[in-house]
Amino acid sequence: MERRSRNVTGIIRKVSIYVLLVFITLVTVYPIVQIFGISLRPSDQLYSTSLKIIPDDATFEAYRTVLFEKDFFTWLRNSLIVALSVSIFGVALASTAGYAFSRFRFRGHRAGLVVILITQMFPATMLLLPLYVLMKRFGLIDTLLGIIIAYTATALPFCIWTMKGYYDTIPRDLEEAAVIDGTTQLGAFLRVTLPLSAPALTITGLFSYMAGWSEFIVARVIINRQGLYTLPLGLESLSSTFQTEWANYAAGSIIVCIPVVVLFLLLSKFLISGLTLGGVKG
Amino acid sequence: MKTKYLIWFFLLPSVVVIGCVVFYPFLYNFYISTTNMSLYHIRDYTFKGLVNYREIFSEPDLYYYFGKTIIWTLVNLFFHLVLGISIAMLLNRRIVGRSVFRALLILPWAMPQYISALTWKGMFNYQYGSINLILQKLFHVQGIEWFSNETWAFVAPILTNIWLGFPFIMVVTLGGLQSIPRDLYEAAEIDGASAIQRFTHITLPMLKPVLTPAVILGTIWTFNNLNVIWLVTERGLPADKSHILVTYVYKAAFTYYRYGYAAAFSIFIFIILLIFVLVYLKQTRTLEREA
Q: What span, in angstroms and rounded, lies between the C-alpha atoms of B26 and A122?
């Protein structure tokens, strides 16, 4: 008797957990599902007050418009140039600086790490404003090089921190063995440590890539010329004419989101360990 | 090669780049903060000493924005932690489709932030936004004019940011939960500990090492979050009432072109944040020592 009532409460508990989880998940994905629905709206239903997710007469018209009638490919090209440069630049510099911080003790070692952490506390305007004024002087406003510089300023400290955290987890014995075998320390780094760090290099690179791909506030300040718009600027320009272009904005967002979201889901595990490792090991 | 040279060889490129794009601008920002530089005085500015700093403290809305920033940070962090931890605990069981739930629940974090913010802005639209439509059709309540009222205009970005931020805490907590040994719970159960006691005496203390860095990062990110308020409230609607400190400075710098003033204000925000983090770190460390 007692066992049966225990079973019943167990089942009720189980069911209520699922109900709760499904409810939370539905609320969470609703905005995303909704924007997908909007992207399917035909142009005569933009001002719809229906709550249907998939509109009547659903169409991919907005996707065609965004891809072929807007400057989508210009935005895409600019975003690719910026994000790729930032991530390549960031990884190349961070892979060496992070190594120095992980393996050697030198004067200013601690201070250097503290400075890197402190830069993460800067409010956006703290570097953006002086960079903007300087770029105005040097004629870098309205150039892609301008945004690349600004993004590097924010991405590089973070990259160094992540790389250092990863090198810390690779045992030194491997390098020492290589040195005993007659390689130089530099050779040991190039032939032993660097290949072992391939996952960290990839992840650091991809994350700084995604940061550049998705940044709006800084780009807004540095770029005014439409021909140099990156994807975020382009999409925002569609959304500000909200009433007429809402479906186009939604379609553009879906196109831009899919690759980043997939990458993110694949990498989320590594990101967490990168963030917390650095925090714990200091 | 001697180790000394090797260190320089590794560090120098980054030191040069950080020096040029971080350190020099940082110092230059200090310099700007002591001048009356603006769009109209970009070359012929003059040295003004601490005038800009004095102006910050005589700004009538300073305490209003400061208060809003504190509320913004606390409310967001509170909900991020409560939602993130409880959802993680729901997921940390034998559940069919666990990885599907996990992937779907991470989506708000995975989406580019500006897209989420713009999407939510659309959802808060008075006539066509789905939030008002849901209120009207499902609950038969009148729609809210989100951006003409000071309070609602602040609630809107908070709702957006709670949605954006809880997955981060959820994922961190999930990782932490998996590292807690099962026998701890079993032993506690044998000793007759209730579910709440097990949570406060085992789960929370064991989560602390992963949650502490996450909370510090979360605080910094939330405090400095420009995107959400800027995009959701369309630059501080109604009439600059929904700003937090960072959006206010951004507007002062790039809408009103008050460079000197904005530079001083950035330093002011940075110092507040720095003090907070130092105090927080010190407290968690002293707590650890006592424990």
A: 10
Chain A residue nearest residue B11, CA to CA: A97
| Confidence at residue A281, expressed as pLDDT on a 0 to 100 scale | 37
Cβ pair B9, A194 in contact under 8 A: no
Picking from A20, A121, A242 by the largest number of B CB atoms within 10 A of its own CB, the best residue to mutate is: A121
Tell me the chain B residues in contact with residue A132 when contact means C-beta distances shorter than 8 Å: 253-254
In contact, A126 and B271? CB cutoff 8 Å: no
Q: Do A127 and B25 touch (CB under 8 A)?
A: yes
Which residue among B109, B119, B250 places its CB closest to the CB of A35? Answer: B119
Instruction: Kindly report the pTM of this predicted structure.
Output: 0.88
Nearest CA among A209, A216, A212, A223 for reference residue A239: A216
A/B interface, count of CB pairs below 8 Å = 239
- Asked if A211 and B114 touch (Cβ cutoff 8 Å), the reply is no
- Spatial CB neighbours of A19, under 8 Å, sequence gap ≥ 6: none
Which residues 6+ apart lie within 8 Å of A168 measured at CB? Answer: A102, A277, A281
User: What is the maximal distance between C-alpha atoms in chain B?
Assistant: 77
Instruction: Tell which CATH classification among 1.10.510.10, 1.10.3720.10, 3.30.930.10, 1.10.357.10 matches the domain B35-290.
Output: 1.10.3720.10
Record the tokens describing residue B66, joined without a space: 């400061």
CA dihedral sign, ordered B90, B93, B94, B97: positive
What are phi and psi for residue A85, nearest 5 degrees?
-60, -45
Domains parsed from chain A with CATH numbers = 2-61 (no CATH), 65-281 (1.10.3720.10)
Q: Tokens at residue B217, please?
A: 């990062």
Tokens (6 digits) for A259: 């690759």
Average pLDDT, chain A: 87
Q: What is the structure's pLDDT at A264?
A: 84
**In this predicted structure, what is the pLDDT of residue A175?**
87
Q: Is the ipTM of this complex over 0.85?
A: yes
